[in-house]
Design brief:
Length: 215
């Protein structure tokens, strides 16, 4: 007896519910995503084959631009307040603590820090920023900054980073390192632009050997 043939019908799937879910997820990610702000100081970091990822929390980053100007970035507002209080107390700077806490970075001599903080955020950008004086060995203000920062982080973890432009001159970098040494901060990380290990080099051979052992 022959089997009855069922009529073929086109598949009809109602996508309304799935579209609603996708739209809700998209809205959630848009509202909760924090976009990385544009950097006020343009820096082209040197390339390296280091695979270690720089920390993104409890950071104190020293940036050196191509002209040798030095800037400081911190991410913890409580530590920022402690640094501001230290500087105001010891140097009589009379800086606005609230403005200091909200500032994305610091890059001016102590004598003009109050004016620097009074500028709108969008104006604290570009090559016209003075930077922190470091090249004069008798007035390397990074020494005082590091003393204040170390005091603020006393008893807690601090990730000290250095981000230097590939075209920056050595004296500025040396002045920053001298300030680290003067405050017994001898451990820091360099921010570089990662690239793949050149094939055939000793590091490449070690990397490949390590991958084979893991397999």
């Amino acid at each position: 007896m022959g089997r009855a043939k069922l009529p073929r019908k086109s598949t009809n799937i109602d996508m309304t519910a799935m579209c609603d879910v996708a739209f809700l997820l998209l809205s959630f990610f848009i509202l909760t995503t924090k976009f990385k702000p544009a950097e006020a100081i343009a820096v082209t970091t040197p390339n390296s084959v280091a695979a270690k990822v720089a920390p993104d929390k409890d950071i104190v980053m020293i940036t050196i631009d191509k002209d040798g100007k030095v800037f400081i970035t911190m991410d913890d507002e409580q530590k920022k307040e402690a640094v501001c209080t230290y500087l105001n107390t010891n140097l009589n700077l009379n800086m606005n603590v609230a403005a200091f806490k909200k500032a994305g970075f610091y890059g001016a001599p102590f004598s003009s820090m109050a004016s620097f903080l009074s500028l709108p955020e969008e104006q604290r950008k570009g090559d016209k920023l003075p930077g922190i004086p470091v090249l004069d060995s008798t007035d390397n203000q990074m020494n005082v900054w590091m003393r204040a920062i170390k005091d603020a982080y006393l008893g807690s973890k601090m990730n000290l980073l250095v981000k230097g432009d590939n075209a920056a001159k050595y004296p500025a970098f040396k002045a920053v390192i001298d300030a680290f040494k003067k405050n017994d901060e001898l451990k820091f990380q360099m921010i570089t632009n990662p690239e793949s290990v050149p094939a055939g080099t000793e590091l490449w051979k070690k990397t490949m050997a390590g991958e084979k052992r893991e397999e």
